[in-house]
């Protein structure tokens, strides 16, 4: 068997592999928790511009793309039988269809539960990120002093939201925050949002575990550059996940969801690395078996990521978001350029990963 197919070995860098596990854990936590902390902590919310959240959301979304080696491009490491049929595409499409079916089943079960509670599921698509106030049919002017720093982006794009006079006696005016989250909280119940974000995070976490497994069994000559690449990948992807979790419209008693979601994402790659290191030390894994397993898992995760990227991210964020149907070209261009920059950097990272 060629050197490319040889199993990995610790060969003196086991300490670096273990250290890399903690480096990735810290990097993932920083990338994912930054949007959550900046959105939920009043001191930071007043100082972090809304454009930072928007850039992080779209920039991080571009991290969800196909990656890894396919089964057919294993360079002779596996039996030729696997090259007679495009198994990578078959596994990818199977996972994509499975993600679709599972999400539909989850929505049906959730709708049934809502019906028993006397609530109805909205007919409109679920958005992982709230629509802008300017996309609403009508907005009541809001006193400036009711506005928190996290909503500054909304004011900069719709100055008419600020009232020049105080409310009339006995009149209660909703705050801008309530308007800014109207579509997410009124038209998209927490259960629907949780299902949408859960589908997204499941695909990303599954892919992260595979990344960890691959990194753990990578040959020492390739480990260092791949570690650097994956550190940046996890940080960028964490920004996209964390921003969506930060803007999840949690009800009282569910404030823990964004924090737990951030933690789950952050530990997935280290868990994959720990499992890979354990298998490497305890089992004699051949290069062919490792390549085949990695190819199958990469193909499955690619299908899940394709579904979440096209449906949960691009379609819901742009196609079904009324704000981007009528907003100015500046706002639209900012979102597209943020997405393109993230995609470009992820593509550059993909050259090594």
TrEMBL record:
Subcellular location: Membrane
Membrane-spanning intervals of the chain: 18-38, 87-107, 190-214, 226-247, 259-279, 291-310, 330-349
Domain of life: Eukaryota
Keyword set includes Secreted: no
Annotated keywords: Membrane, Transmembrane, Transmembrane helix
Membrane association type: Multi-pass membrane protein
Gene Ontology MF annotations: zinc ion transmembrane transporter activity
Entry annotated with the keyword Transport: no
Region described as Disordered: 121-142
Protein name per Swiss-Prot or TrEMBL: Uncharacterized protein
Species: Rhodotorula paludigena
């Amino acid at each position: 068997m060629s050197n490319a197919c040889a199993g990995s070995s610790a060969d003196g860098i086991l300490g670096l592999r273990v250290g890399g596990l903690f480096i990735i854990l810290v990097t993932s936590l920083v990338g994912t928790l930054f949007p959550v902390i900046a959105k939920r902590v009043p001191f930071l919310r007043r100082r972090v511009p809304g454009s930072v959240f928007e850039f992080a959301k779209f920039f991080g979304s571009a991290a969800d793309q196909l990656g890894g080696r396919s089964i057919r491009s294993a360079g002779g490491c596996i039996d030729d039988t696997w090259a007679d049929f495009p198994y990578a595409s078959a596994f990818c499409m199977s996972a994509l269809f499975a993600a679709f079916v599972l999400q539909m089943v989850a929505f049906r079960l959730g709708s049934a539960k809502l019906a028993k509670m006397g609530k109805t599921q909205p007919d409109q698509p679920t958005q992982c990120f709230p629509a802008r106030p300017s996309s609403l049919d009508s907005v009541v002017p809001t006193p400036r002093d009711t506005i928190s720093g996290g909503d500054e982006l909304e004011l900069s794009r719709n100055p008419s939201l600020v009232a020049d006079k105080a409310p009339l006696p006995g009149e209660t005016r909703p705050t801008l925050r309530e308007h800014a989250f109207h579509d997410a909280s009124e038209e998209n119940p927490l259960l629907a949002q949780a299902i949408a974000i859960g589908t997204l995070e499941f695909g990303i976490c599954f892919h992260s575990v595979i990344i960890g497994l691959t990194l753990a069994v990578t040959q020492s000559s390739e480990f260092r550059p791949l570690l650097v690449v994956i550190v940046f990948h996890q940080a960028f992807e964490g920004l996209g996940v964390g921003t969506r979790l930060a803007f999840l419209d949690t009800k009282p008693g569910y404030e823990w969801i964004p924090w737990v979601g951030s933690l789950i994402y952050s530990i997935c790659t280290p868990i994959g690395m720990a499992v890979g290191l354990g298998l490497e030390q305890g089992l004699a894994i051949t290069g062919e078996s490792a390549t085949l397993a990695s190819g199958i898992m990469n193909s499955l995760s690619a299908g899940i990521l394709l579904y979440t990227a096209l449906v949960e991210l691009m379609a819901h964020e742009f196609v079904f978001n009324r704000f981007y149907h009528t907003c100015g070209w500046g706002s639209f261009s900012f979102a597209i350029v943020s997405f393109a920059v993230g995609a470009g950097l992820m593509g550059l990272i993909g050259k090594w990963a």
